[in-house]
Amino acid sequence: MRRIVGTLVGLMLAGLSPAWSAGGFALPFDSVGASGMGFAGVDAADYDPGAAVRNPALHGLALESGLASGAHFAHLSTQFEGEAVREGTDGSTISGGNSGRSGRVDAPIPDWTWTRRLNERVAVGATLAAPYGTSQHRDADWKGRYNAIDTVIRGIELTPGAAWQMTPRIRVGAGLRLHWFDFQYSNDVDLGAVVQREVQARTGVDLVTPACLVAGEDALPGKYDFRHRAEASRFAAAWQAGLRVALTDRLAAGMSYLAPIEHGLDGEATRQRLGWTVEEFENDPCFLTTRTALLATGGSFEDEVVALVRAATTDTGFGLTLTLPETLSSGVTWSGERWTFAGSLRWTRWSRFDEVVIRFDNATPTIRRQLGFQDAYLVALGLRYRLNERWTLSTGVAGESAAVSDANRSASSADAGRLYLTGGFSWVVNERRTVDFSTGVLRSREGEVDDLDPMTGNRVTGRYQPLTLLWFGLRMRWRM
């Protein structure tokens, strides 16, 4: 039973991995100009300085020298409906509501670009964006609390880069991705269910339930819960590259590649026992026959169970290794006198994000969690219409597939295929300043959940109602 610490801590952090899915924490807001067109054509756009956040070949194209500064503001909401049962132990129903509060993105999502053209062929620049982020807050007593309660993820990225006009029609660029990633996460742990299943696995028979019945005690599942909170952060660097080709005077195509980013996150895990002490656990009559069985086989209940439970419910440091996936994106634009039509196809290799490795400062063995993610695709179409020299309107539509299939969806993840509908405008205030605005809505399909935890035997079934994300973006451009 000495593996109980590894089992418990693995259970604490297991809920993190399903929440890290395409819909869970990847943000599509490259720039205010792009989000007003449904993210279409961003890799080829010569009208949006913020497009350089994805394709560094675009530095110095829409804005020869200047600054674009703004942000997106977003709110997401969804609701779980279903039930949770301790299927692997006493068959009781796990009490609680259907998740309660909706999620949100707490902080503004930055859209900042500085660019400067050094000469007719070379331009340099830098962008600041947040490609990852979410803030999901659920009621502490909801029925899926053993999967997750709060999940807060932030990923801020500074990208310096340079562009080179290689030929009159071909432009290339490259840049660094300087990425800061941090998360906060909490869930409850059904320690009673874990211990009962561990005892049964060791002895080959359920010694706990009959002892509880004889003593008139409550069953172990749900009796010794504790709350686990984890926080970790890390800086890492990667690279990106892009290409833009002017096929004709009106038609252009672009492509960009964002390399994967490997993070080794270091953090602290805190644990709070919910209304019980280790002494109460040690003296619980439910363990009377367990003590006898361990003693008969040369074991010790105090050493093999109590000491390890004490360690598993004590604060400790940990490290988490993960790799954020690469993205390959392409775009095309056609510009007329007043109309601009755009399209995009984007591939994100979420299947790379197949494993989370967790290390601990104490003697807890390393935990490896398989995720079962799949690649995600985004297809977008958008258009712009220039009303006059000062006003331009935009709109767009995009569809994106989920990185989590119905079979692999956790009770902590509402990720499903989604549709974006967007609109926006640009207003030329004067020859040096331009205001960009965008707004839109994301709507996902329902997400079916059938989540059986092999460590506790707890099963959560039901569905997430379609997720809704509402946003608007505002940006000012200064020409220098």
Can you lay out the helices and strands and say which pair or pack?
Blueprint: H1 4-14, H2 16-19, H3 22-25, H4 32-35, E1 65-77, E2 80-86, E3 109-117, E4 122-137, E5 150-165, E6 170-190, H5 191-203, H6 208-215, E7 225-246, E8 251-258, E9 261-273, H7 278-282, H8 288-296, H9 301-312, E10 316-324, E11 327-335, E12 339-348, E13 355-360, E14 367-370, E15 376-386, E16 391-400, E17 418-428, E18 433-444, E19 447-452, E20 458-464, E21 468-479
Antiparallel strand pairs: 1-3, 1-21, 2-20, 3-4, 4-5, 5-6, 6-7, 7-8, 7-9, 8-11, 9-10, 10-13, 11-12, 12-15, 13-14, 15-16, 16-17, 17-18, 18-21, 19-20
Structural description of this entry:
The protein is mainly beta and 480 residues long. The protein has one domain: Outer membrane protein transport protein (OMPP1/FadL/TodX) (Porin), CATH 2.40.160. Helix content is 15%, strand content 48%. The chain is built from nine helices and 21 strands. A 14-stranded antiparallel β-barrel has the order 1-3-4-5-6-7-8-11-12-15-16-17-18-21. Strands 2-20-19 form a three-stranded antiparallel beta sheet, with no helix packed on it. Helix 1 runs parallel beside helix 9. The chain is elongated.
Helix-strand category? mainly beta
Q: How many structural domains are formed by the residues?
A: 1
**N- to C-terminal separation?**
68 Å
How much beta, percentage-wise?
over 45%
Strand arrangement, major sheet: 1-3-4-5-6-7-8-11-12-15-16-17-18-21
